[in-house]
């Protein structure tokens, strides 16, 4: 169960990690920073030979989900839930505005950001927080 949760959350983390605005960006960055700090020992123990980039570190941590420290697991869970909420809120918009792009990939995320003026209120709130959208994602 623990492994499946981390798998789902880590997949979600790869989707929404682009620049945003307002409090949502602040929350996401804080959660990312907390996860990096909380998982530093786990990363050193399990993934020290892994080159960063392309989601390889997250993938490595995911492979060792059943061995993660409680602190790392909780930080990854908080970060993943924040991202998963944004994905859930924006899924209808992605299907409507970017149906030709594979879900959860950077090109779809960029498509959503390019269409920010056409996003639903739930998606805007998930991506940009309580700050009014200013036309510059």
Short description:
Helices cover 66% and strands 0% of the residues. The longest helix is centred in the middle third of the chain and has 28 residues.
Please write out the topology.
Layout: H1 2-13, H2 22-38, H3 40-47, H4 56-63, H5 70-97, H6 106-114, H7 121-128
Envelope shape = elongated
Spatial extent as radius of gyration: 15 Å
> What is the N-to-C succession of helices and strands?
HHHHHHH
Main sheet record: none
Strands, count: 0
Number of domains: 1
- Head-to-tail CA distance between termini: 36 Å
Which stretches of 5+ consecutive residues score pLDDT under 50? 1-21
Helix content: 55-70%
The number of helical elements comes to: 7
Q: What is the mean predicted local confidence, pLDDT?
A: 78
Q: What fraction of the residues are assigned to beta strands by DSSP? A: under 5%
Structural class: mainly alpha
Your description of this structure?
- The protein is mostly helical.
- It has one domain (2-128).
- It has 7 helices and no strands.
Sum up the structure in keywords.
mainly alpha; elongated; 7 helices; 66% helix; single chain; disordered N terminus
């Amino acid at each position: 169960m623990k492994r499946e949760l981390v798998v789902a959350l880590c997949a979600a983390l790869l989707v929404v990690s682009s620049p945003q605005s307002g409090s949502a960006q602040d929350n996401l960055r804080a959660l990312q920073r907390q996860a990096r700090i909380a998982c530093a020992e786990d990363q050193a123990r399990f993934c020290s030979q892994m080159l960063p980039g392309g989601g390889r570190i997250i993938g490595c941590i995911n492979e060792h989900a059943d061995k993660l420290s409680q602190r790392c697991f909780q930080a990854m869970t908080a970060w993943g839930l924040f991202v998963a909420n944004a994905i859930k809120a924006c899924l209808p918009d992605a299907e409507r505005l970017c149906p030709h792009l594979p879900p959860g990939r950077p090109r779809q995320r960029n498509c959503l950001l390019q269409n920010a003026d056409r996003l639903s209120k739930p998606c805007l709130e998930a991506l940009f927080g309580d700050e009014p959208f200013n036309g510059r994602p």
